Amino acid sequence: MENDVTTRLDGKVAVVTGAGSGLGRQHALLLAKQGAKVVVNDLGGSVNGVGGDSAAADKVVAEIKAAGGDAVPNYESVATQESAEKIIKSAVDAFGKIDILVNNAGILRDKSFGKSDLKDFSEVFQVHYWGTVYCTKAAWNLMNEQKYGRVIFTTSIAGTSGNFGQSNYGSAKAGMLGLMNCLAIEGRKNNVLVNAISPGALTRMTGNLGIDESFMKKLDPAFVSPAVAWLASERCDVTATIITAAAGGFGRLHYFETKGVQFDPSKPITVDMFDQQFDKINDLSTADPSTAGTEGKTQERLDTLSA
């Protein structure tokens, strides 16, 4: 029973970007079911970011209200600082505050790197990376001042592991993890936690990725949202954490570093020395989770010289 209470979102205000369909819609519906008041943001554009239509956000708001929840629509783009600020302002204007931000909005411009146009990189980054920066920046001081906030980024296996034809999308999704790691350090003292979801779901954005149809049927976006709702709750006590979610399966993804080797820094270090020790450097069986901060394993390795 205690868990049921602490995972509830009664009294909390959430913004979900790109919430007119797919993952964002399911996130918004579940956050509202859990008790949150929700700003349903969606520009209403196509998968590649063209156009706009208020109907998508309006429909989700209507669904939430029909189920007894409370929500308002917002039709701004995440792709400019000014419009992102309006998204967060709509939460404050409607409900008085902002507690939860789910950065979900996205577009696709899939092409192999050799055939891609750098304009596609710019536009994909503008939505995925800069959209996440802009919305988070607009909510950041408000959350820190009230000593509470839950920020959720949407990353992808295309960023953490790579995927053919998604160099622009994958690099944007990886870039936001650096932002997550830094903001997690800055926000922790004020109970502002920053985490990421790496989803696998059948949506209009994944419909043309060439994945086996029988497998895709298992990827209901609703199966991802419970993890997002938990990360949005007071029950969540982790930060800088990447949760993978697909087909009802959940895991944690993290950076690791091998034990490696330590040469004496008071003496010359050569390419041949590195080459001779590469198998040991590359031995993942010795890997430990990376930790926050700039030191990494440097001092730990240096200590082995005097051991």
Automatic annotation (TrEMBL):
Keywords, in A-Z order: Oxidoreductase
* Pfam families recorded: adh_short
Specify where the region named Disordered lies, as residue ranges: 285-307
Record domain Ketoreductase: where: 12-208
- Tree of life domain: Bacteria
Q: Where is the signal peptide?
A: none
One GO molecular-function entry? oxidoreductase activity
Which residues lie in Basic and acidic residues bias regions?
297-307
Q: Does the keyword Hydrolase apply?
A: no
**Where is coiled-coil annotated?**
none
Family listed = Belongs to the short-chain dehydrogenases/reductases (SDR) family.
Protein name according to UniProt: SDR family NAD(P)-dependent oxidoreductase
